[in-house]
Amino acid sequence: MLVFGGTGDLALHKLLPALYHLHREGRLHADVRILALARSSHSRESYQALAERHCRAQVARADFTTETWASFAARLDYFAMDAAQSADFGRLAKYLGRAEDRVRVYYLATAPNLFEDIATHLANAGLAGPAARIVLEKPIGHSLDSARAINAAIGAVFDEARVFRIDHYLGKETVQNLMALRFANALFEPVWRAGHIDHVQISVCETLGVENRGAYYDKAGAMRDMIQNHLLQLLCLVAMEAPVRFDAEAVRNEKVKILEALKPISGLDVQDKTVRGQYTAGQIGGHDVQAYYFEKNVDNDSDTETFVAVQAEIDNWRWAGVPFYLRTGKRLAKKTSEILIQFKPVPHRLFNDGEANQLLIRLQPEERISLQLMAKNPGKGMRLKPVELDLNLANAFSQQRRWDAYERLLLDVIEGDSTLFMRRDEVEAAWQWVDPILQGWHQHYQSPRPYPAGSDGPEQLQHLLERHGRHWAE
């Protein structure tokens, strides 16, 4: 496994700790080697020391031992090179030597503008043989045209079966449990449709700001950074039909159908069906935080959105008339990622108490699935209150260590299983829906609405649901 961007945050904070855990649990073949690639001038020993510091910080103390690290470090090497320079790929080929039958996984933990060059340089250096695979981090482009250009350049070197477009949300345990919940339990299938579901909410809320990603984020914004990939992937898993088999092509075929069935939002529709916001100064956890436009590497007059809410609709037989409300934002009051399925009320209400009838699938901070029902309060009379049937995954499987999403996805890459990765047409179908929204904002001068850091988002957020008699889940 060759990790381009081997000294970056993703490699040091996520990829190497994930590989360490796989090694510790005996999931890596004895022949697996890891080569980090970056411009910094490290020796093998100095890079191993850097990697050890980060892994110690990321891995639970009970899971990190000197002996295990020593055996893992024996797999780990470093090669200094510039991924933009074709000559350095010749040096890399010489360093690796000829091994046509050996599987080489190229993990591109780099800026997306290097994807095309790296693929081309690998091919020219003879490093993209039939056993080679390539892993691409999101975002794949910043528009439909740019995504097509990247996919075409990668496709000219690697056939589709050897391209792994990673979205770490698909590696989360609860996300995969969503498929188990839907397709392995007869309880839900009859009611998983427009006749019984009022609406769906998908929320990914963060308390953090842009941190050290200002230069990238100010050109991307929340729509490109989160909606186009993470939230649309969650929408697909909620809405897709059952695949004929649980394999890569069958699962991804059904996800593409959902993306292609999304009703377009364009022109003046963006004013009614989207909310765009940007955080101003405020307080989170008792600490003052600055406005977005004062963040490092962000333009002082930036109109980049840090918050987006969208009312999406799927134009097919199962979901016609059911709105899917998507929202994501930075510097919000709480950190949470969850999917809420709101079922319709009973046809005839015998009691005056409020309705529950919600299925909540929480991805973070804790992984849990809870079904909220109405039950009678003890005592005289028929006073009802919401109660939960709760599956806390951490408690249900307390004897097992919780895998990080990257552990699962890296092992899938090594084993050649692309079920949890995005296919080329899937990425392009998502951009085909997102592009008109971005264009609508630009054409109709829809600037981001300000919201104080530590709030739930712009005031206009509530109107998106309230005008239809609905409200966001607390």
Percent of sequence in beta strands? 15-25%
Order of adjacent strands in the largest pleated sheet: 16-15-14-13-7-12-11-8-17
Approximate shape: globular
The radius of gyration is 24 Å
- Category by helix and strand content: alpha/beta
Q: Please, what is the average pLDDT? A: 91
For the terminal residues, how far apart are their CA atoms? 43 Å
Low-confidence stretches: none
Total beta strands? 17
Main sheet makeup = 9 strands, mixed
* Helical content (DSSP H or I, runs of 4+): 25-40%
Count every helix, treating DSSP H or I runs of 4 or more residues as helices.
14
Short description:
With 474 residues, the chain is of the alpha/beta class. The protein contains 14 helices and 17 strands.
